[in-house]
Predict the 3D structure of the following.
Amino acid sequence: MATKKQPQKRKKRTQKKQEKTKLKTNSPCMSRSPTQPTTKSNGLDTPEYHQSTQTKKLSINNVPKNLDKYDKDFEHSKRIHTEHCKEHQKRWMRSIKNRRFKSTDIQDFKALLGRKNLHADFVPASDLKARNQFGHFIIDEMLRLYDLWLENPDLDFQWITFVSDHFMFNERDGVAEIYACKKATQDVLRNYTTYNAFGIVEIQPIINFPEGQKGKMFAVHTHVFCWGPKGQTAHLKHHSKRFKSSITRLPIHSQKAHHLEGSFGRLGRYMIKPPFEGKEVNFERLVQGKACLKPARRVEKHHDFRLFELNAKIPMEAILFGVRDGVAVRQRIVDKLRSWQASRTGEVVNLRGRVDQLFEDFLRDNKKLKNYKPLVVKYRKGQ
């Protein structure tokens, strides 16, 4: 008699445990040795970087997603900056392409973006091709400052961010005080430090603040790269009462720059990065008086459109400023940008003096944007 075959026990399926890792905020001063591999990333695979980093042509097609979180050297920083500009050009285009163009021409908006072979007869901050080149020129200056540190190792290099409630405005009908924010930053650096510096004025959405109010806030703030004698930041923070913020623990935040090529290059590209991310407030921590700002989970399409509008109304060179020796740094960067613009190929669209009216007509044609009024941008003295 044949023995009955025993049925095999079914193996229990076990679920793989998902590792919960806290991604560190993409802080511009975070350093990594260029010769050491890293296992941390921003959700992207680490690519091979043996390709040419020349970026004379900016195309939005076939954008690679495998960018390393940390910069290896200055050429690597330029490559990452170029990919950010490519990606953001598409985002801003998506914010308008399905809208109505009854009394406007979409070609004008493409020219403001630097899309295809179109560009404006001036250089707006919304022109992503120009911003790509502008970033490369800034990174080149960071290389000069890196060499300056090699010659003067006792110098202190600081990355400082200035934030104030006074320069926040409503996304629906506000006024962006670009010049006033820039002037306030220059004044406190001149009055309370001996730093040399150059920096950028940036606009960022705070997507959930104020709580319970229709229409959230945009924050105009500055990022500044400073160099000079050590031990000045404490005095700066103590005496600079002009900057007060209800949503940040410190309205003036400083970080020591690490003396590595990747760190200096990363600061350069972070300074002129496209405004691709926002912030949101943790209200529980706000009530407790703790640091409550964190990167936003997402930026909505109307935020992208408003950021496009704001940057289209600002000349690129108006967002860059200098203090002491930083004035010469700024001038070299601006001269290179003007030279590049003069030799630029493609079709020129006459938009100088027409941008405000262009967006006013666009908002009037699109009833879905009826709650949004044209934003006012004050980027020069006397506006």
